[in-house]
Amino acid sequence: QVQFVESGGGLVQPGGSLRLSCAASRSIFSVLDMGWYRLAPGKQRELVAEITSAGSTNYADSVKGRFTISRDSAKTTVYLQMNSLQPEDTAVYYCNPVPPLQWGQGTQVTVSS
Description:
It is a single chain. The chain is mainly β. It has a six-stranded mixed sheet, with no helix packed on it. Strands 1-3-8-7 form a four-stranded antiparallel sheet, with no helix packed on it. The protein has strands spanning 4-7, 10-12, 18-24, 34-39, 46-51, 57-59, 67-72, 77-82, 91-97, 107-111. Helix content is 0%, strand content 47%.
């Protein structure tokens, strides 16, 4: 069973940036479509960014142009660069395959002044 560990969250002011990282327990990112999801209070978990095994990327309209997903297959890590963060981006962020398998603890992102 593969485990995913998210890191890089924190408190940032509106307009700021964060880079999230997702490490897998073994090298699978070259064969799976991977996604970053987020769960905000009172909302359903949503897929915000996806990178396919072929390297194509897709984004939710709410983050398009601000977030960038990438992966480093050699290091078994998937990244989410988040720029121009807004309070509505506040959520717990998770990485998982698309479709998801088993959720980890995620990493909290809070955007507030």
